[in-house]
Amino acid sequence: MKRKEGKISVRIMVKAGFLVAISIVMTRFAYIMVPLAGVSALRISFGDLPLMLSGMMYGPLVGGLTGFAADIIGFLINPQGPYHPGFTLSSILWGVIPGLVFFRLKREKNYDKIYSYKNIFVAVLLVSVIVSLGLNTYWLSTLFGKGFIILLPTRVLAALISIPLNTIVIKYLMKYMRNFI
Prior knowledge:
This protein is mainly α. Helices cover 71% and strands 7% of the residues. The chain has a single domain, classed as Arp2/3 complex 21 kDa subunit ARPC3, CATH 1.10.1760.20. The protein contains seven helices and two strands. Strands 1-2 form a two-stranded antiparallel ribbon. The longest helix has 29 residues, at 148-176. It is globular.
């Protein structure tokens, strides 16, 4: 079943809905808090993986909608602090940026070339630097009144762990999701 330009099929909406649910569970309920030097804590979660997968598989529009729904519904179910619209924007971008990267790559007809380690790494690196290190650090600094530079080192440490890990997990998942796309 081909998708018409600008239309999202019911099948894709249902699959995106599953990715929203997985993202909510992984972000809100399945995470680890690692204390660092008694000063701050590092939250490790795989809740952004379903958002990136949504963008990679179905494009930037579906990826953005998936991120929006995951953030709003997740906040309504289990708020982890005050609502901040910046985090909703960040959640949207977790789906849009990989979607834009892979939208360009989909001209290739070879599945293995499209979802190669290099392409997945580039998408994960881009979204992690822009959203996690840039925007989310800024939102946290404005929300809690701490300096951007003070928060950045722990977030860089988290990114150094999560970027290669997310790349490997996504590559492994894409190996088995050929029929799901």
